[in-house]
């Protein structure tokens, strides 16, 4: 079975529902909404069965601060495997030190190359591309809602892991991002707002499989 879904959890959900999704997902992405609603300890309890169990736990706080503050944030979320940061904050005094810190902990850094919403301006992608090239993160976040920019990012970074949000609730079609170069599709609301999350995720996997067979 295709294993290309990173489940974005931005709402409180039942632990038993999450546990039942285990075999269908590659990893979990945790955002501010969940963390602020239930706190760090409850978040750890919720994702407990996924930690150190071959499932990547990605902390999506879109870090965008000075090095010291970002390192302090990461140090309080050590249960995660990976952390997402913005690229636009630049290198010296920010991403250089964050990358070093995350490397020392044998964790992974993802940098945002482009956002999935309409208002994001890709005109400054050349600047972002330069930052990503210099920092050399483990992976890149690139949007499923803008397939041409996703394709460009894949071409510019042929060996990086690309994770792609914007599918389902934000309009992207299941499987499209995989066809345009993403390694994984980040999917949240389409699954956790469904009345039948397991049925929904099975349907999504099937749609992804059908799509990649013809792209
Ligand atoms: O619920 P939905 O499937 O839209 O979830 C997408 C997730 O990916 C959300 O957690 C959102 O914050 C995140 N994200 C995004 N666009 C980006 C980066 C992250 O939608 N460019």
SSE map:
Elements: E1 5-9, H1 15-20, E2 27-31, H2 32-46, E3 56-63, H3 67-75, E4 82-86, H4 91-104, E5 108-112, H5 125-135, E6 139-141, H6 147-156, E7 161-164, H7 176-179, E8 184-187, H8 189-192, H9 197-214
Parallel strand pairs: 1-2, 1-8, 2-3, 3-4, 4-5, 5-6, 6-7, 7-8
Helix pairs in contact: 3-4
Bound molecules: cytidine-5'-monophosphate.
Protein name: Orotidine 5'-phosphate decarboxylase
GO molecular function: orotidine-5'-phosphate decarboxylase activity
Pfam families: OMPdecase
- Lateral strand order in the biggest sheet: 1-2-3-4-5-6-7-8
Give the terminus-to-terminus CA distance.
18 Å
Helices and strands: which structural class?
Answer: alpha/beta
The biggest sheet, with number of strands, parallel, antiparallel or mixed sense and barrel status, is: 8 strands, parallel, barrel
Average predicted local confidence, pLDDT: 97
> Fraction of residues in helices?
40-55%
Sequence stretches where pLDDT stays below 50 over 5 or more residues: none
Q: In what range is the share of β-strand residues?
A: 15-25%
Number of DSSP strand runs: 8
User: What is the tally of helical segments?
Assistant: 9
EC number: 4.1.1.23
Binding site for substrate: 10, 29, 60-69, 116, 165-175, 188-189
Enzyme class: lyase
Family: Belongs to the OMP decarboxylase family. Type 1 subfamily.
């Amino acid at each position: 079975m295709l294993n290309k879904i990173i489940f974005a959890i931005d709402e409180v959900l039942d632990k038993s529902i999450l546990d039942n999704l285990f075999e269908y997902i590659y990893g979990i992405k945790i955002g501010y909404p969940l963390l602020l609603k239930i706190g760090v300890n409850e978040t750890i309890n919720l994702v407990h069965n996924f930690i150190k169990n071959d499932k990547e736990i990605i902390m999506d706080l879109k870090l965008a601060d000075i090095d010291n503050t970002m390192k302090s944030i990461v140090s309080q979320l050590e249960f995660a495997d990976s952390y997402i940061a913005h690229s636009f904050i630049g290198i010296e005094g920010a991403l250089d030190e964050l990358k070093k810190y995350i490397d020392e902990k044998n964790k992974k850094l993802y940098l945002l190359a482009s956002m999935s919403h309409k208002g994001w301006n890709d005109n400054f992608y050349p600047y972002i591309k330069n930052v990503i090239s210099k920092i050399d993160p483990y992976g890149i976040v690139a949007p499923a809602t803008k397939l041409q920019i996703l394709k460009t990012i894949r071409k510019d970074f042929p060996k990086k892991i690309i994770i792609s949000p914007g599918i389902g609730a934000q309009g992207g079609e299941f499987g499209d991002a995989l066809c345009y170069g993403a390694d994984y599709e980040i999917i949240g609301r389409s699954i956790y707002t469904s009345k039948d999350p397991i049925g929904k995720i099975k349907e999504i996997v099937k749609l992804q499989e059908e799509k990649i067979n013809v792209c």
